[in-house]
Specification:
With 111 residues, the protein is mainly α. Among the domains are: 10-56; 78-107, no CATH class. The chain has 4 helices and 2 strands. It has helices at 9-25, 29-36, 40-56, 95-107; strands spanning 77-80, 86-89. The protein has a two-stranded antiparallel ribbon with strand order 1-2. β1 (77-80) and β2 form a beta hairpin. α1 (9-25) crosses α3 (40-56).
Length: 111
């Protein structure tokens, strides 16, 4: 359970704006605070507090689950051979060469 004062969203937003302006100013924190009459210790305390809050905040990213696509017609063929071996055949293969290759592979002893 958190102790201390409850968060004041208006005060937090106020300091977020100051810190964002400082980041874009090109000034040191001391020079920025002097220019805008801000208490330096309070500036550093809020910068640390907001950094910690941002680091602790969970970030969720939307995810879309896409089912696996069925194989495209005319795509590669994959043959599962004895011993867990696989053979991929591209479209346009020579059937006679494939028959010879399969004969050799099936006759060979598995590795």
């Amino acid at each position: 359970m958190a102790h201390g004062k409850p968060r004041d969203p208006r005060k937090e937003q106020h300091w977020r704006r100051w810190i964002q302006q400082w980041q874009h100013s090109g000034l040191s924190a001391q020079a920025f605070c002097d220019r805008h009459h801000l208490p330096v210790p309070r500036f550093y305390a809020w910068r640390r507090t907001l950094h910690q809050r941002d680091a602790a905040a969970a970030t969720f990213v939307p995810v879309q689950i896409v089912p696996d696509r069925p194989p495209e017609p005319g795509g590669d063929l994959e043959l599962l051979l004895a011993g867990g071996r696989r053979l991929r055949v591209r479209p346009g293969f020579d059937p006679a060469t494939l028959r010879q290759l399969l004969t050799v592979l099936e006759e060979a002893s598995p590795c």
